[in-house]
């Protein structure tokens, strides 16, 4: 189902673009600071009455420097949004107020985004739910899927919000399928991502890796160590100041991609051919309508500026 991730990501980006200006105003008014990720507060809220353990995030997002999660959580503690208890974190009353306000605002804004008809959205929700039920049956470790399912507590929320959450959940399983496919070859997510960028020729040295992956919070030195490890294994070789994959490495990389597709595609095996085509058609229409909305905004903006 190579079409699903691309369409889902287009839809999610398009939806976010519709609400981003109002959302940023809310976040700024709430006192949100760059060194604290508000998503962590949302996760903490979804886990209640249990507390948030950093290990949950580290396992779900294996490519990011684990230290940054603790930094973000400690920043939220300093701001009074999270409290710390025995290595775990929970929402304070002020943190819960921010999260509840954010969720209410998102629901209100997304509900105003009229893309598909109500019957079409209900049908898309049903087909997506069939995929999610099949994912639950898959015998692979699913930390990212389980984490996104916490956000999937969307009963009573607007239909478009439910669809958005379903797409996040399915994409999380795609990530789980990928991790399950490369784990037999490498235990370190940062090393594997380094390997992946070398194989795809998106980077050739430590400096390029650090520049392309600033959100992972690893240094150039960290990537140099990862490259040394891959070089010693015989998976990459230095050529004209840049690393390239060896033949063995390309075979491994292709095997991982093939296995990822096999695991992910199994989630759609419960759909008939007709339902599969219907799901793809509805998602294509969804993405296309959002692109039209975005184009209209770009057309209207100069006219508004002229009137000001």
Summarize the structure.
This protein is mainly alpha-helical and 308 residues long.
The SS-based structural class is: mainly alpha
Largest sheet: 2 strands, antiparallel
- Strand fraction equals 5-15%
State Rg: 21 Å
Number of strands: 4
Distance between the termini: 48 Å
Order of helices and strands: HHHHEEHHHHHHHEEHH
The average pLDDT value, as a whole number, equals: 90
**Spatial order of strands in the largest sheet:** 1-2
Low-confidence stretches: 299-308
**Overall 3D shape:** globular
Count of individual domains: 1
Number of helices: 13
Instruction: Kindly state the percentage of residues in helix.
Output: 55-70%
Task: Explain what the structure shows.
The protein has helices at 3-29, 38-47, 54-60, 66-79, 93-111, 118-136, 143-151, 159-182, 189-199, 206-212, 220-233, 247-265, 273-307; strands at residues 82-85, 88-91, 236-239, 242-245. By secondary structure, the chain is mainly α. It has one domain. The strands form two sheets. Strands 1-2 form a two-stranded antiparallel sheet. A two-stranded antiparallel sheet has the order 3-4. Strand 1 and strand 2 (88-91) form a beta hairpin. It is globular, with a radius of gyration of 21 Å. Residues 299-308 have low confidence and may be disordered.
């Amino acid at each position: 189902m190579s079409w699903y991730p691309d369409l889902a990501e287009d839809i999610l980006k398009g939806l976010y673009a519709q609400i981003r200006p109002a959302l940023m105003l809310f976040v700024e008014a709430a006192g949100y600071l760059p060194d604290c990720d508000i998503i962590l507060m949302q996760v903490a809220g979804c886990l209640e009455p249990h507390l948030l353990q950093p290990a949950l995030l580290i396992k779900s997002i294996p490519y990011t420097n684990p230290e940054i999660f603790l930094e973000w959580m400690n920043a939220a503690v300093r701001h009074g949004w999270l409290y710390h208890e025995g290595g775990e974190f929970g929402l304070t009353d002020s943190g819960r107020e921010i999260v509840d306000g954010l969720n209410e605002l998102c629901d209100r804004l997304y509900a105003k985004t009229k893309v598909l008809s109500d019957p079409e959205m209900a049908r898309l929700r049903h087909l997506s739910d069939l995929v999610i039920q099949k994912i639950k049956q898959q015998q692979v470790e699913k930390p990212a899927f389980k984490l996104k399912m916490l956000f999937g507590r969307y009963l009573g929320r607007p239909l478009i919000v439910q669809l958005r959450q379903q797409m996040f959940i399915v994409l999380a399983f795609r990530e789980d399928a990928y991790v399950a496919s490369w784990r037999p070859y490498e235990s370190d997510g940062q090393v594997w991502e380094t390997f992946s960028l070398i194989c795809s020729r998106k980077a050739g040295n430590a400096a390029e890796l650090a520049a392309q992956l600033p959100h992972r919070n690893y240094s150039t030195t960290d990537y140099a160590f990862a490259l040394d490890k891959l070089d010693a294994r015989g998976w990459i070789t230095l050529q004209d100041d840049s690393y390239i994959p060896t033949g063995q490495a390309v075979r491994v990389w292709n095997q991982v991609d093939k296995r990822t597709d096999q695991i992910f595609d199994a989630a759609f095996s419960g759909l008939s051919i007709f339902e599969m085509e219907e799901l793809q058609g509805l998602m294509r229409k969804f993405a296309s309508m959002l692109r039209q909305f975005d184009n209209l905004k770009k057309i209207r903006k100069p006219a508004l500026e002229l009137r000001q």
